[in-house]
Amino acid sequence: MVSAVSSQAATLNPLAAYTALDGGDSSKQLASNATPDDSDRGPATQVSLSQDALDRLAATFRQGPDAAQRAMDDSQTVQDRFTDQFAAAQADMAAVRAEMQKSFAAAKEKMRDNVVGWLKMTQDSYVKYQNATPVPAVQLTDTEIDAILKKVAPRGIDPSKIGSADTYSFGEDGKIYTFRKDGTAWVNDGDVPTSEEQKVRALQSMANNIQFLTSYLRDNGTVQPPPVA
To answer: Which of 4, 13, 56, 179 gives 20 to 30 Å between its CA and that of 204?
Structure first.
């Protein structure tokens, strides 16, 4: 069996090269590019070392076993230091993960609270709309149009941006204001439908919202949704 030790490995760790050279047989001699002759049929060791590696090996041999032990102790110290640093890093990451999980849990709880509020509000609107008698919207005068537009201007409301839509609507003080393409404007109570047709559409939309919000609460946590009206 032939083993080879590279010059790079020997340079980095002379003790490893020394161990490979020794092979448990004190009769082996250190040699550069040694080639076993025919009289040696036992285990042979072929070593190719640089002069620097040979010098380091010689220095190690001269220092004796104490130097070898010190080298091993230094290596263990480095390994222990790395292990401690790695454990500290793991502990830091565990703390970060715990804090992230806490933040996510708080955000999720806040979201559930919001959804419960939205669901309750939608259910209340559904019941009120369901029991309301439709009242047609009232057309605004030019003076009333100017007054309401000045009032909501700070909010960025501008019916001239109606674009391709048929109507431009916004809410103010519980009222719904609707501007049409023909330049007219209309107002109605936000809690009262303007027609039976509009009532049916609004109730269907609110029913869809109630179903969505209820499903969210059922699928995301322990918060129990209020009963659907």
So the answer is: 179
Same domain, 48 and 145: no
Structural domain span for residue 164: 108-219
pLDDT per position as a tens digit, 7-38? 444 444 444 444 444 444 444 444 444 455 55
What is the tally of structural domains in the chain? 2
Q: Among 33, 63, 93, identify where a domain stops.
A: 63
Per residue in 184-211, pLDDT tens? 999 999 889 999 999 999 999 999 999 9
**Inside any domain, residue 182:** yes
Classify residue 22: in a domain, yes or no: yes
Give pLDDT < 70 ranges for the chain. 1-76, 78-80, 82, 221-229
Q: SS in 3 state form for the chain?
A: CEEEECHHHHHHCHHHHHHHHHCCCCCCCCCCCCCCCCCCCCCEEEECCCHHHHHHHHHHHHHCHHHHHHHHHHHHHHHHHHHHHHHHHHHHHHHHHHHHHHHHHHHHHHHHHHHHHHHHHHHHHHHHHHCCCCCCCEECCHHHHHHHHHHHHHHCCCHHHCCCCCEEEEEECCEEEEEECCCCEEEEECCCCCCHHHHHHHHHHHHHHHHHHHHHHHHCCCCCCCCCC
Note whether residue 75 is domain-resident. Answer: no
